[in-house]
């Protein structure tokens, strides 16, 4: 049985066509389940616990990355042993609206793909990142400029606004075709990659002929595979985009939790 957690904004008329299309496909495939609307005062942790206690094993986020991030964090408070037979709770995503990195990663980038993913219910256990021992993320965490990376025996300082740090659990920058990164970005290997990028200075025709890999307008400069990193900042509180935007107290401790999360994946997944 499924539990569908619909973000409150999906009720807006702007998303009516997508929601209607989703409802039709779910009905055609006979995929029924309990529906919960996530309002501002909704206790998601309590709802997730209640669903798990009633025997529900597939938790579906209906919305965007922010929706999936909220459900993921609530789910992991319950299911801390996803590989244990009979106790596994799985996360799935039905995409509505924009910002769909998590859905794309799972092979559910479109509503038809996502429904087919639910029908097949093929599952994989993947690593998740953890920030300050309480906030989980699945895809990547992007930090503001002018932070430093603290490793066990050395520190990497980023001194200007052109540099940015992304701690990646998946191949967010599509670098698998590059031999330097063929063994990187595997969300099932127990490590993550700290990627240091820099905004290219080249302009005009020079930028067109640049051989450097691009990452959302940035060039990849360094990749550090690791299991635990401390992100240092002069600011007491920094904004981190880790699946969804979060305000975190610096320094931020980032670590990996191997095979922590069970997810429902489709044929086109990026794992």
Automatic annotation (TrEMBL):
Residues in domain DAGKc?
48-135
Give the domain of life.
Bacteria
Which molecular-function annotations from GO does this UniProt entry contain? kinase activity
What would be one Pfam family of this protein?
DAGK_cat
Tell me the PROSITE patterns matching this sequence: DAGK
InterPro entries with a match to the protein in the record: ATP-NAD_kinase_N, Diacylglycerol_kinase_cat_dom, NAD/diacylglycerol_kinase_sf
Task: Give the Gene3D superfamilies listed for this entry.
Answer: Probable inorganic polyphosphate/atp-NAD kinase, domain 1
Task: Write down what this protein is called.
Answer: DAGKc domain-containing protein
Q: What is the originating organism of this protein?
A: Candidatus Komeilibacteria bacterium RIFCSPLOWO2_02_FULL_48_11
């Amino acid at each position: 049985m499924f539990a569908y957690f619909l973000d409150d904004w999906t009720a807006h008329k702007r998303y009516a066509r997508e929601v209607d299309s989703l409802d039709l496909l779910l009905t055609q495939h006979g995929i029924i389940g309990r529906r919960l609307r996530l309002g501002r005062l909704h206790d998601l942790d309590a709802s997730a616990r209640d669903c798990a206690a009633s025997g529900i094993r597939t938790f579906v986020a209906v919305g965007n990355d922010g929706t999936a991030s909220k459900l993921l964090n609530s789910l992991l408070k319950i299911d801390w042993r996803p590989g244990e037979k009979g106790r596994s709770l799985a996360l799935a995503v039905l995409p509505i609206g924009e910002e769909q990195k998590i859905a794309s990663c799972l092979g559910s980038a479109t509503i038809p793909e996502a429904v087919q993913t639910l029908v097949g219910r093929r599952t994989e256990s993947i690593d998740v990142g953890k920030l300050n021992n309480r906030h989980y993320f699945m895809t990547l965490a992007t930090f503001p400029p002018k932070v430093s990376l603290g490793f066990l025996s050395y520190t990497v300082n980023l001194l200007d606004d052109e540099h940015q740090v992304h701690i990646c659990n998946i191949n967010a920058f599509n670098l698998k075709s590059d031999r330097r990164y063929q063994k990187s970005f595997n969300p099932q290997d127990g490590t993550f990659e700290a990627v240091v990028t820099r905004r290219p200075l080249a302009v005009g025709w020079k930028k067109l002929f640049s051989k450097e890999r691009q990452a959302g307008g940035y060039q990849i400069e360094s990749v550090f595979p690791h299991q635990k990193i401390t992100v240092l900042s002069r600011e007491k509180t920094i904004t981190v985009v880790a699946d969804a935007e979060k305000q975190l107290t610096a320094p931020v401790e980032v670590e990996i939790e191997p095979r922590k999360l069970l997810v429902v994946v489709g044929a086109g997944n990026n794992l």
